Amino acid sequence: MSNFARSLTFGASAIAIALGMATTASAQSTGSEAFEVEQVVVTGTRGPRAIEGVVAENNPKSRATITEQYIGTQAAGQTILNSINLLPGVNFTNNDAYGSAGGDLTIRGFDSARVSLTQDGIPMNDTGNYAIYSNQQMDPELIQRAAVNLGTTDVDSPTASATGGTVNYVTRRPSEEFGVIFQPSLGEYGYRRAFGLVETGEFGPWGTRAWFAASKTKYDHFVGAGGVDKMQLNGRIYQPLGDNGDFVSLTAHYNENRNQFMPRVSLADFEKGGAYDKNDYNTVRSQATAVNPSNTGNIRGQSRFTLSDKLTLTVDPSFQYTLAHGGGTHTTSETDPQLIGNSSAAGVDLNGDGKIDPNTKVTLFRPNITNTHRYGVTSSLIWNVSENHQLRGAYTFDWGRHRQTGQMGYIDANGFPEDWFAGRNGRPVELPDGTVLRRRDRLSYAMLNQIAAEYRGSFFNNAVDLTVGVRAPFFDRELNNYCYQRDTFNAYCTTETPSVVNPDGTVQFPSSAMNSNANNKYRAPVSFDKKYDAVLPNLGVTWKFGDSQSIYASYAEGFSAPRTDDLYDVVDVNPEPETTNSYDIGYRFQSGTLIASIAAWKTDYANRIVRTYDEAADMYLTRNVGDVTLQGIDGQIGWSPIENLSLTGSFTYTDSEVKNDLPNGIKDGVAQFIPTAGNQLVETPDWQFGGRVAYTIGDFDLGLQGKYVGERFANDINTEVAPDYLTFDLDVRYNLKALGKGNSYLQLNVINLFDEEYLADISTQTDRAASYQLGAPRTAMITLRASF
């Protein structure tokens, strides 16, 4: 049995035990959903109305939601993060048209590592650096809805990293009736995808129901070499308990992605033109230079139990597994000192010719591998105190083992890696001292214990709703580095004896391929613990006046503990957690044909951490840029003037200001600073607009949507600016009423309809030129959905 299979088996056993002991439900988390459902019952508020992707919100916070009806209009197989791109405050830049090559998310000026992503309430951010991997998310056909909290979290959000808000998406429940969906897609750049779903309907004596789904996707990159080969398996079994909403459920997900990184460009190269010409890139280069494989999976339990007419208990246990890396190559001599280590050998025969030659240099596969095992549980106890008042207590536990290695491997005669995971799963580069050649070797444990409490009350004949909550995360990191560390990007794994030991405890080694500068200073292997905690209150109030109008105001505090990478530097910087104080005031109008909202907001952001190049030390180090102020206005509207026509739109204005210059070490005894005071945050456009028109005529559903993104600064000193852009997408569906159950269709999607050339994701810099991902060109695809 494979390690992954053993991990899933163990995780499933743990969840099954937890479900047997517990009681819970389903959504952002089951507890949050159950609490909101109870509030709806208490206040008599109707369920969420939606107009083509605009949902009527009732929470006293800035939130926007999309439903499965809107998700289905988007490209088949598209990442869910691209489908929220038209919501206010959100900007998602896709690396390609189809969504399986990655992308980048920002919300109200906060990058994705500062946004909490959850699937059915379980955290999807990386345990070490909080990164979000958009191409590893669930197939969109299986998602019931996705909600974005702008600048705030839910009180039980299982996160130590959310300063910029949350994205929560929810898995569809199994149907009560048997059904089958088969959905093939074809598109440009060799795009082929097949998706299938089987619904069991109710079976057995207790009305159990389930679904099982699989998909396979392959296509070529629109620029550069390689492409995507992706497989995904999903399944859910659901057992209702009575007719009052209680249930137990178990969902499993597995995603296997094999793809190459796409080439990035500079602003200067883009402005010269020709950046989209595939022939401008070396398409026959070694595929090993940029592979990005991943095996990810999770098991999610959910349950809800009514203990009495006053008490409801929810428990959501989970297990997650990750094996992934971003790979490259490195060329080294057969007599490099790192290969020799503390042995008396002359070197290593890397090319297998039976001899060791100092003039022989061999290119090896050099990955950064991450392997994570993660266990968690989110639970809530809800007490309906009276008709108009509720209380709940919540507890969250999240524990992750985060193993970061870089066992190098060999490249075959065709330029491909012998194994996608190099020496970890394949043939390693064995050294004469009994070790293997490594790029890095770190082990960390992340443990979150969080308690939370929330009160909701309705006053003045349900005209005023009040929410008061507090969450208290207690976050521990245990860190172990088994190599010599220079900065995040440079470790030196060797058994050599250092040539120099400095008074500050750092060490130096003779020059080698992996250590090109003999003056480099390294932190010796080390083990240490870090602990962080916070008390984070939130407050919200809504006043409903008239039948259709309301105003709301909210205040929330956020917290993000330092990332693993920020703690392993040669310099023990010991950064403080990032914190935010967020304020919102908004107005909503909700009638049968019109849904509209507008909000003014401000976020005071402290201890913003960035990584900057220290010229004197010749390395990248963690720095605290201090305070940042963000403020703005965003809004959303959905209007259906006639039965078959809907018009929706959103806008966002964001103003950001960095308050301080960025410290940058000491040179010749003088403190150095990078001029950032008064500048705007990188990747944060002043203006964004989104809109969609949808019209039904006969058997045809027509949709046209667009997104405008203003100029974005690409470095912290604000000297490089990515130009603004405007893209449109088209979707046309022909409903096949005579086929199967009547909800079959043939759908055409055209991404970037007018073939706008633009820069998408930005790899920002402090005071240097950035690199960019090209936005996808015009790309057409067609999908047949056969439902029986």
TrEMBL record:
Chain ranges for the short sequence motif TonB C-terminal box as given in the UniProt record: 771-788
User: Would the keyword rRNA-binding turn up in this protein's UniProt record?
Assistant: no
Check the UniProt entry and state the signal peptide residues, or none: 1-27
Tell me where in this chain the TonB-dependent receptor-like beta-barrel domain is found: 245-753
Instruction: Tell me the keywords, alphabetical order.
Output: Cell outer membrane, Ion transport, Iron, Iron transport, Membrane, Receptor, Signal, TonB box, Transmembrane, Transmembrane beta strand, Transport
Superkingdom as given in the UniProt entry: Bacteria
Topology with respect to the bilayer: Multi-pass membrane protein
Xref: Pfam families: Plug (PF07715), TonB_dep_Rec_b-barrel (PF00593)
Q: What ranges does the record give for the region Disordered, renumbered to this chain?
A: 325-352
The biased composition feature labelled Polar residues covers: 330-345
The entry's localization annotation reads:
Cell outer membrane
Where is the TonB-dependent receptor plug domain positioned along the sequence? 57-158
Family statement: Belongs to the TonB-dependent receptor family.
Classification via PANTHER family: FERRICHROME IRON RECEPTOR-RELATED (PTHR32552), FERRICHROME OUTER MEMBRANE TRANSPORTER_PHAGE RECEPTOR (PTHR32552:SF68)
Stated name of the protein? TonB-dependent receptor
